Amino acid sequence: MPKERPLRLAIFGTFDVENYGDLLFPLIAKQRLGPLGVEVVAISPTAHATRYRDAVLPLSYPEFVRDVDSFDAVLIGGGNIVHTKDFELPDYSATAYAALWIGATAQAVRQGLPVIWNGPGVLQQRVDRQAPEWLQRTVDAADRFVVRDNDSAKGLELWSGRRPSVIPDTALDLARLWPLALVKDRFRDIRASLGIPDEKRVVALHVKARSLAGVDIPSFANALEGALRRTGTVAVLVALGRCHGDHAIAEEIRRLKPDCTFSITDTEHLIDMAAVIAGSDAYLGSSLHGHITAAAYGVASKLVAVPLLHKFMGQAVQMNRAQDIATSWAEALDALPSLLASDPPCLPDAIAVQLDSHWQDVAKLLTSGRKHVRCADVFSGADPDAALVRAIREENMQARGRASTSNPTTTPPAKKGNFMTETSQTQWDSAAVNQMILGGDLDGASRQIDATLDQQPDFLPARLAEVRYALAKGDAAQAVTLASALSEARPENPWVLMSHLQSLCKAAQHDAACTLFLTRLAEIEIDEPMMTTALNTLLGSVPQKKQVTFLKSVHDLKPESSVVQLRLAMRAHVSGDTALTIDMLERAERAGPLPAYAARIKSQVLPLVGTMDAATDAVLSLWEAGAEDVETLCRLCRFAAAAGRFDLSLTVLRRTLDLHPLEWRSLYRLNRIFLDHSEDRAIFETLAQIDATAQTGANWRLQFALFSLRVGQDEHGRAVLASLTDHPATGPTARSLLAAISALGSAVPRPEVTQDADVRIVKKAGARGTILVFGGFLGGLSHLSDRHLDLLLSEIPANVIYLRDPYGRVYLNGLPEFGQTEAEMQSGLARRVAELGGGKVLTIGGSAAGYAALRTGLAIGADEVISLAGFVTPALADHDELPHVQQGLVELFSGDLQSYDLRGALNAKPETKLVQIIGGDYAPDVARAQALAGLGNAQVEVLAGVDTHHVALPVIADGTLKRRLQEFFS
After folding, report:
1. How far apart are CA 707 and CA 779, in angstroms?
2. How far apart are CA 678 and CA 160, in angstroms?
3. 3-class secondary-structure state, position 567
4. DSSP characters for 869-916?
5. What is the chain's mean pLDDT, rounded?
6. Cβ neighbours, 10 Å, residue 836
């Protein structure tokens, strides 16, 4: 018998261009479907081969049409291919992109083949009429209809009438294609070939021209050099989009800064670019798939989203990486120190589940065979491709007829001072000239511009192209001169304004650009897309600290612009101005539902809009309406605890663990909610089974190790920590915690310590006083549980009162055992100390609990307070705080940080001594400690060489804390 042929799947996308992200999709499809005996064939507008030896060689679309009856299904995407635009690219016809999804569907329908969407992106379309029939038939024919982000789904629904489902970009399967160990080994070879010393930290860097937003390459290179010098790092440049000229920019940066940059722009392997990103200590770039690669391999990153396309935020939110979005290179470079010190979030476990389900559905549809009942043909007639050409021509003509005044050729002429015209008396092709400029054919562009201006000197589109040409050849001064003349002649034209702004920014005249924009904004109307472009251009040149002030000025002039409202809300949120954040979100919401990223911020700031109880009710309503994502559940769990609704908090925690057991955030919340010991033990057994059988991430395992130590499973907890010591994100914490635990030994804690209570008192025979331990958010001292801390405190001649705050509000709500307020708690603790016989009193806590220890220590007249990297005031220090720290403090202290300043109270009680212990190499704590200058009863002890906020661990490991306590009670 003849051998049965393998199933053939045609995957459609732009796999004929040298663009890293696009070229991944056929490889991932092969990895997923190859084991099932499926032959995956890449189909592109052309059959051009790229330079990359590990990329798939595509067939051209005409070849697919010729052999369509040899295929068993079509797979559309990924990549940004769902649109009908003609970008006039070389070798691409006017319907090249449309053929990848409309044409593919039309051909498949005629053959009865399954049509499967592979999470492509959708470019924004103008929607002001009913969807044409061919579009409705195209989307109706999809057997699996999925796109990669919510904005794509919403846009396609508005355009076509059918809403697709959303899945993550399938490139997030990258670690399946090239496992982490493989790319790490490859990166070691790459850094050796480049001559990068083993001890040198590396930043993977990708720069796209448009992301520079007018900043010239030498200026950017200087800023990059400064950031690398300050962090002791070097950059390895990757050209993820050679089709966009990324390699030319990378080579120029390398030429300008050879001492701190390296380049792999000449690589012939896609895996090399993945390896550099996966193996580096951080990634900075302007590529969606560079960001996706960093997330897939757990690398800290910043995505310079200029312009702020919906695809950037759409994937970032799904990856739990919205905080990675930067609106300028200045912001990204400023963030490099904190990025190198941060623990990047793991990918949500839901992503793997969604992608597994997607490929299972693809396999089922592929093996189901041809359809017995055919869908309606996308186009009637014998030749669907000829019909496609006619349909797209008609669609584009109607789109041009519907174009808004954002097009310079349709802007009405000025009423005075106008020497410019938009009426062409020559053969002018804007798209062709723009392509020449973008593609580097500057001589060709110059000839076209000069020829047109010779015949028609006042033709505005050619004058605008003249400015772009000057910018492209690096003559920013000439560009400013040309743009200034245009601006004087056509002050009402928004495209002229954009040209002038870009020229000024390119010439580093940033203040002039901002002043011009604010001046013109008061005089002309610009639409929301143009506002987005303008802000992207300008914010790249505005220092992060000044962006809120600048955006306020813009908002004063355009208070109804939702683009300005949302941009101001996001920058205010990052800077800690919660009142402004709330105000802008509320204004933006009046115009319609907030985008997903803004809705997420709104949920975060709910406690500052009203009471914590009201915030709990608001999130509870979301849960009751069906929202059961891990972020919503964890937030509800936290809010409910803070509101004192402990039963609800426990119910939600249990639901979170049931639905999202592989999410590290589920365990993070578990470690901050206090259950009884029997439930703790049951949960441990479940998690231990998961850890033994599932692929859990490093952050998940760190949280599991902390939970294991909390429930007394020391051997298991130590083993998990030991497995994490070499991980770049979790290694420092794991090593510090193991050192502290080892120093304490393995004795059994005193029985009172392990009681199920928020207040546990351990009496000591011959005690000379009392220690009050203010447990942190995890209930112990830093990452160390009370059962381990007691191994140290049991050797001190003192009674111990262990405290834990079930509200998670640094004891500002008091403790339920004593009443409803902090004052009642402090009075209750004073009584307990007196009942224990008095003597010396010492309070101790770490981080925010160090502040609580000081606050209560002053209230009850403690002799000494040990604050391990705590603070004396929650008001922001001169050093820039990490955004999540700022936001946490604002929430804890209800936005009124100044009224919680304890310096006055400390100064008024000289009998109470404060000892503040900080890491000498941890800049935020060093800055905060400056607040104690001039206070005679405050002493700062600096631990040389310690670069962590969690100083409790090193002072326990080296015996410092034990010696200090023994001296105090001696």
Report:
1. 11
2. 55
3. helix
4. S--S--SPPSSPPPHHHHHHHHHHTTT--GGG--HHHHHT-TTSEEEE
5. 88
6. 19
Per the listing, tokens 């251009």 go with 537
Report the C-alpha gap between 479 and 468 in whole angstroms. 7
Note the pLDDT of residue 404: 36
pTM: 0.56
Q: Which residues contact residue 656 at a Cβ distance below 8 angstroms, ignoring those fewer than 6 apart?
A: 630, 633, 634, 637, 663, 666, 669
Q: Per-residue pLDDT tens for 446-476?
A: 999 999 998 888 889 999 999 999 988 889 9
Averaged over 336-341, what is the pLDDT?
92
Write out the two tokens for 295: 């997330």
Q: Are 870 and 854 in contact (CB under 8 A)?
A: yes
d(CA 220, CA 333): 10
What 3-state class would DSSP assign to 283?
A: strand
Residues 809, 817 contacting (CB under 8 angstroms): no
d(CA 106, CA 59): 18
Is residue 198 predicted with pLDDT exceeding 60?
Answer: yes
At residue 810, does pLDDT exceed 90? yes
Residue with token string 């936290």: 638
Alpha helices in 319-383 (DSSP H): 329-334, 336-341, 349-367
Residue 360 has pLDDT above 50, yes or no: yes
Give the neighbor-by-neighbor strand order of the sheet with 799-803: 759-762, 799-803, 769-774, 840-846, 864-868, 913-919, 938-943
Lowest-confidence region among 407-416, 435-444, 822-831: 407-416
Strand order of the β-sheet with 59-60 is 59-60, 38-44, 7-12, 73-76, 115-117
592 cis-preceded (ω within 30 degrees of 0): no
Query: Could you tell me which residue, 887 or 93, shows the higher pLDDT?
Result: 93
CA 518 to chain CA centroid, Å, is: 30
What is the band of 127 on the pLDDT scale with cuts at 50, 70, 90? low
CA dist., res. 496 & res. 502, Å (int): 10
Structure tokens at 721: 């920590």
Cα–Cα distances in angstroms (integers) from residue 932 to residues 882, 885, 915, in the given order: 21, 20, 10
Q: What's the angle, vertex CA 771, arms to CA 796 and CA 798, rounded to 5?
A: 35
DSSP H helix total and E strand total for the chain: 45, 20
Task: State the CB neighbour count (10 A cutoff) for residue 597.
Answer: 18
Residue 761: partners with Cβ closer than 8 Å, 6 or more residues away: 752, 799, 800, 801, 802, 832, 836
Size of the chain, expressed as the number of residues it contains: 970
